[in-house]
Amino acid sequence: MRKTLHSRSKKITLLLISSGILFPAAWSGAFAQGRKKQSAPDQQDTVLIASPEKVPQLFGTVRRDQLVQSLSYLNGKTLESSPVNLLSNALTGRLAGLYSVQTNGAPRFDNSQLSIRGRSPLVVIDGVPRYNLVDGAPLFDVLAINPEQVESVTLLKDGLSTVMLGNRGMDGVLMITTRNRGQEPGSSISITGQAGLQTPLGMRKPLSAFDYASLYNEALSNSGYSPVYSQDDLEKYRSGTDPYHFPNVNWRDETLRNNAPLQRYTLNAGGDHKNVGYFVSLDYQSQNGLFKEDPAADYGTNIKFDRYIFRSNVDLKVSSSLDANLNVTGTIHDYIQPGVGFENLFHSLQTVPQNASPVTNFQGSFAGNRRYPRNPYADAVASGYLKNNLQAASATLSLRKDLSDVIKGSWIKALVSYSPSYEQKIDRSKGYNAYNFPVTGDTSVYTRVNSITDQNNASSVIGRLQQTYLELSAGYDQQWKANGLSVLLLGSYESDQSNMQLNQQFKNISGRISYSYDQRFSFELAGAYSGNNWFAAGHQYGFYPGAGLSWNAHKEPFLRNFTFLNELKLRASWARVGNADPGYFLFRQGYVSGSGYFFGTGATSAGSYYRGTPAHNRDAEKSEKLNVGFDIAYAKQRGWFSFDFYNNRQYDLLQVRGNNTGLFGQEYPLENLGRNRFSGIEITTGWAAGSGRLKYSVSGNLSTVASKVIDNDEPEQIYPWMSSMGHAVNQIRGYVAEGFFGPDNLGDASVQGYTPQPGDIKYTDLNNDGIINGYDRTVIGNNHPLVFYGVSTALRYAGFDFSMLVQGVANRDILTNGDYQFAFGNDGLGQAYEHNLNRWTPATAGSAVLPRVTIGSNPNNSVSSSLYVRNGNYLRLKNTEIGYTFKAGFLPLNTVKKIRVFVNGQNLLTFSKFKDADPENYTGLYPIQRVINGGLSLKL
Amino acid sequence: MFSKRSYKLYAVLACLCMSYTACQEAEEFPLEVRTEELIYDQMDINGQLAEQALTNLYTFLPKGFNRINGAFLDAATDDAVSSQLSGDIHILAKGYQNQFEVVDEVFAHNYTGISRANLFLSKIDVVPVSETFKQYWKAEARFLRAMFYFELIKRYGGVPLVGEDIFEMEDKISLPRNSFAECAQYITAECDAVSGLLRKDAALVPANELGRITQGAALALKARTLLYAASPLNNSANDAGRWQEAADAAKAIIDLNYFNLNSSFSGIFTTRNVKEAILSVQSAKSSSLEQANSPVGYYSDLYKSNGTTSPTQNLVEAFPMLNGRGIHENGSGYDEQDPYTGRDPRLEATVFYNGQEWLGRPVETFDGGKDRPGTALIQTKTGYYLRKFLPDLSSASNYPAADHNFIIFRYAEVLLNYAEAINEAADAVANRDIAYAQLKAIRGRAKITAGDGSLYGLKGNMTQDEMREAIRLERRLELAFEEHRFWDVRRWMTAETEFNKMLRGIRITKTADGSFSYHVEAVESLVFQAPQMYRYPIPFAELQANKALIQNPGW
Questions:
Q1: pTM of the full predicted structure?
Q2: ipTM of the assembly?
Q3: Sequence spans of domains, chain B
Q4: Which end of chain A is more exposed for a tag (fewer CB within 10 A), N or C?
Q5: To the nearest whole angstrom, how far is the Cα of B409 from the nearest Cα of chain A?
Q6: pLDDT attached to residue A172
Q7: Chain A residues in contact with B86 (beta carbon < 8 A)
Q8: How do the domains of chain A map onto residue ranges?
Q9: Closest by Cβ to A416, choosing from B5, B16, B87
Q10: Which is it for the CA torsion A452, A454, A457, A462, positive or negative?
Q11: Tens digits of per-residue pLDDT, B72-83?
Q12: Does 1.25.40.390 match the CATH number of domain B36-73+90-260+538-545?
């Protein structure tokens, strides 16, 4: 009986991993130990149990029972159900502590912005920190990796786990480990092909020409101007009887397709032999954009993102004591977009109203208008194209020599990594002719409002980057009876060369000592002395220490008989970590050449000016991180629960001093003045069970991030509510809206100098001085702890498998006061959307959500206020997959060991109180996509 | 074999270590950044880079034209409204200005200029340029510094005088405001000090350096500063002595006998170097002014016209007839249904009105005309567009790149300063005779007919009050859109009435027979909130950072 249960629990465990459930950090013990003894019940699952007894940590791995740090671990297999090209988009909702927000859906630029405990994590791939900044901006997304090449993803969350990075450890680390072995003994090849359709999500609906013109008239009258559209005009917009003079063009429909294809083909070969393990992968993916093309054109202009990734990871056992590992990867991005650029095109779509002009005039020429000379459709199909080519490669060689013959348990290791990358842009854009067909007068006369230009043929370098990373380490691991000792000493040097800048060097000497006793106690001490050459001498180096302790309480005699509890571990860690953000040699005093003056009649004379006070004292930002947590496993490991509490005290944050007066006459440098606090909890829990052919699991994670500005050096404020201190770091500030002015309360406090009209926003006069001004601005949003969560379920019945991820965010506020919110945007030149119809009118005074519509500047209604703060909470069915695996017996060919067919989807359903647009991407830029995808996977 | 391999491994590691330590030859800092030693080079007898530091100071000179978000500052006066529906200019024109977001905020900008001038003056002595050049350069820097102070005090009133101080990060900068009088005293003292050190006039400036500060500019700044200091806003005690000082300062420029009134009014603005211009902001030729302000109907793919500025009917009516008489005066000959015929020639040089020739066709600002189509297009709100500063393109077919230097000081202003100051200095016929002479000179140049007794339409034997009104009118017309009226009406303290009114435009209907009928209509109200708008608010952030500053009244 006991044995059956044990084996069942093991199967469940295997399922858990294979179906991508969060593997709890605490998971360890019985089943891991049993691995070696038992042959696996299912080949696939066996393969998946890659290294569960040990989890990756920086510069090595650690046995789970000795783990002191706070990590979240994810098996790479989980990510394969996500039909996305960038790894960041597959991680959303899957890991406790990892927050993501995706604000752009354009192929290649659709990465989610990730953060761990309020900071954007450093990405470490196969042990090497990946540097991708050129002039302060990322040259490419280091997470543009095919999920099928990923062995595991580990989130290093607390200070202790990253302290060995010293002045790069403050942001937390997202650690990617790529596959380096076959998935089973011997060699195997797998081929996967998949294709899907992307559909844009949550775009605002523009007003019809009639509604637009009517609202425009209303806005003009409200602003004291005469209407410009007559009743006759409006009727023509409504009826559409004169589409050349009174067009009603839905530019979205004219310019954008309903969906766009996506495809990916992967060929993986893996081997796991006695002295050699290898993983070779070739990956091609192609993603199209949403823009229409002109079938008659000579070339395509829609966004097309082709990506090729080659990866070869080889493990070589050179001798019994020498291991070599060579990882080589290369990436090519070929990217085409319309000549005006997709951002400008979406800007046009956001600007050009439905009544601006027809798409084409009756003669077939592109139509345009004085106010709107850009025709979005022509922008898409007739502005030529831009092509970007990125080449990025990386080679990492490491050698590890076991020195047990000298000192038992000791070793040394050397690692060299070299990563060049280069991107160039080929400009093949051109102008096009667009003509205005006058409303009145001689109909044979066109006015050309936009003119054709020769197609460009120019190439330019977007950026060049070269990263060199060297690492030497020595270690010692030994066990005496109940005592375990592990020592690591490491020196690293990184040199990053971008464009013409002098290289930035990170130098680091670090170490870690771990001691464990009787599988009950583990103690870890780590530290780094690390530097950066872009700081001034005296500020280049810093010391960063950390320590932690864990206690496996379930190993204590008093709990041994409590068999329901399989594991109870308590952990605590503290570390000080830093963030080196030196700027480019800003401590150097100097003069800038520029800003000249035009003397005489010839040319501008050059000018030079003092660039301002040098940042002599600029130093790394720092954070003291405390983390306490516990891990529980129960009911024969079927259930688990893991809890973390963290408190990060950040200090020396860079900011301009609060007392900055113009009298100084120079730009103030950033100084290490700010102090913030980030704290919160992270919970992971799950349950996995099953009987017979049915196996299932459910797991969930929930995280909170509470932040507080402790000190931002702001000058003393006249009123307490004017202070940002004590509130959340990304608080939204503005006026507090009470509702709208009506005819009865026009005498109440209003914006300085402004005479309110019924329908204007009425604000709370916080200081009761009868005027609404800067004294009445306060915190109006994002002042509560951010909460985000994910729930995964997985189910397997016979050959069927099913997985689902639901993910959500709560306590999130968004401030919607951009041009996408206000009708007619800038100077009356702008689009209006359906939500703008909810404006105040005398008839809708009771139900209106937006103020009366006006045109042009309105100092009362278009400023930041709580009226425009929206609940940005949402819940998404982020990912779902259904697959079926054909058993070997059914297969047509003997060489094919397995065939799996699958259908999956991304961003399938969204629930949110925010209805105007997608809650993540609400600014009217390239929409994020729903993806429905299907494919076939063969294993040879 | 094993040992051989490990030997290789150690060799590789050793090489890596060596390569790490072998980096000492590399450039440690970016040496292309110019250091102070390089800029103020003790060996460079030409002071080439030091001169660049001076050149940079010139970029802080006040600029005019469409500078407030594309609008003229004068669109916040009764002379014009902005055609645009949005923009900061409406904040000034509608009285929404406040201390939290100050429009036309130049506080830190000018102190940056002052600080850089101080830095230049403190360093330049080590550069071995010839004493003559060093004298010019230092005088130019000191003039520019004084100019920056004037830009501050005309907006904010008195501001802290920092003298020669160059602040360090460690300094606790807590400086109170000096009074307007103290600042004016500082500026005039600086002008006095440098006027003898500057080049005497533009004739002495090499052709490729035209635009440099000359003696005239220092005297003109002094004259304007003293005029402002004598004006009611800054001279509540009405000290007539101040007016006399202002008059004397203006007279000093006339006595230079170098500057004169350009024979052509419109030519002043379209010629790079005329003797009427005392100081102008030099800029490369361009057609930006044409594109920004010409009537909107002149539009093709080759040239755009955005008609940004709509001069008001109020301004148009202020222009006299060709005979110099006001349109409502008896015998003026004004016809409301033919309003532009027989007017002061400066009218057609200042505004575009219906029927004027431009780019080969008449301007059509009648309802439904090409330049007032009535559609959603941004277009004139008043029936007029701004023509001043543009060359004569009545028969051109395009906008060529043209000279558009913004004139900071010109001789006509000096004459008007002189007339105003001398008229206020004493209620005496002799003083008014001097004022008459200045007005006549300006009206004569404007090609107003001299008429009976060569009075150019001016009333004879005016009282002091009448003369004051005549001078103010002349100032409005002559200096329209040159950023004077906005400040003049403030320093006269008449803004409550002058800038608190409904502004008017003309509505022109084209009748079936092709004739036009004219109808004056209300367009937009101009709001001035007294007393606070007499001064700009000091930015709130500055008050917070420097507790010694005291905000202007009313803000």
A1: 0.91
A2: 0.89
A3: 36-73+90-260+538-545, 74-89+297-399+494-525
A4: N
A5: 17
A6: 96
A7: 826-828, 856-857
A8: 790-878+904-930
A9: B16
A10: negative
A11: 999 999 999 999
A12: yes
